[in-house]
Write a structure and sequence with these properties.
The complex is a heterodimer of chains A (102) and B (160). Chain A has one domain (5-101): Arc Repressor Mutant, subunit A (Orthogonal Bundle). Helices cover 59% and strands 12% of the residues of chain A. Chain A has 102 residues and is mainly alpha-helical. The two termini of chain A are 32 Å apart. By secondary structure, chain B is mainly α. Chain B folds into 2 domains: 2-78, no CATH class; 94-141. Chain B has 7 helices and no strands. In chain B, helix 1 (2-22) runs antiparallel to helix 2 and helix 1 (2-22) runs parallel beside helix 3. Classes of the chains: A mainly alpha (102), B mainly alpha (160). The A-B interface holds A 23-25, 28, 34-40, 43-44, 47, 63, 65-69 and B 32-33, 35-40, 42-44, 46-47, 62-64, 66-70, 73-74, 76-77.
């Protein structure tokens, strides 16, 4: 997994509550990403087995709203996301410390 | 009443944009994506966190318009582009009139070129260029193969 800025934001949103399924628009708002960036990224994560998706059952709220697709990190995805974010944090930390120590 | 009308106009336009975007996707994912993205459009148009109706409509349209980019990128995933085009060329449903007209058009140019060009190397270069242009036009105009209908069309047909 190559950690880019947008991917990092999506992973952070997922890791806020790894057990909570998220739908696309929710992720877009939380990660502040456009749809054209988010969905290919989710598809890639799904291909890698880091994210799983499922359709919600037909909503019974009487609005006639069509069912949404929900995305959730898999157990492997949660571990990988934590590792990647921790690694990214260490790299950023090293760059921050370096100028002061030099 | 007016608000509902504007919402439905925006939703219709967004659905159209999404249908266009989905037509670039391979058949096996096309319907799924269409269902998913149009469901989100409805959610955006009724988002209680965005009080302004105009902003909701704008967001829904931007969401739908950007799916064109999303669909293109989804099509670039390993395997997806191959599934979309390579090996399925002959399954593309082209109106036979269009196919015939474009083939005749190309043939006329090639015959003209053959008759009036003395340099054969030049002729084959031009012929190759025509064929490449024809293929590019063919694919750009057509929906991705693998499904006999554009997503959403079947649903509309059923409603009628």
């Amino acid at each position: 997994m190559k950690l880019t800025g947008p991917l990092e934001r999506v992973l952070r949103v997922f890791l806020d509550d790894p057990a909570a399924p998220r739908y696309g628009y929710d992720l877009m708002k939380a990660a502040r990403l456009p749809s054209g960036t988010l969905y290919p990224m989710l598809a890639r994560l799904q291909d890698e087995g880091l994210v799983t998706s499922r359709w919600e059952p037909q909503p019974a709220d009487g609005t006639g709203r069509p069912p949404r697709r929900y995305y959730q990190l898999t157990a492997e995805g949660t571990c990988a996301a934590r590792d990647e974010l921790a690694r990214a944090g260490r790299v950023v930390g090293a760059f921050r410390v370096a100028p002061g120590t030099a | 009443m007016m608000a509902g009308h504007e919402d439905s106009q925006a939703e219709r336009l967004a659905r159209w944009l999404i249908r266009r975007a989905c037509s670039r996707l391979p058949g096996e994912t096309r319907d799924d994506r269409y269902r998913e993205w149009t469901a989100e459009v409805r959610a955006i148009l009724h988002d209680p966190q965005v009080p302004s109706r105009a902003r909701r409509c704008l967001r829904a349209l931007l969401y739908a318009a950007d799916q064109n980019r999303g669909a293109w990128r989804l099509g670039q995933r390993p395997g997806a582009s191959l599934r979309t085009y390579a090996g399925k060329f002959w399954q593309v449903r082209t109106p036979s009139g269009h196919r015939l007209a474009s083939a005749l058009f190309m043939l006329t140019f090639l015959v003209g070129e053959w008759a009036f060009t003395s340099d054969r190397a030049d002729f084959f270069g031009s012929a190759a260029a025509y064929v490449v242009c024809w293929f590019i036009g063919f694919f750009r105009r057509q929906d991705a193969p693998g499904s006999p209908f554009l997503p959403g069309r079947e649903g509309t047909a059923k409603k009628k």
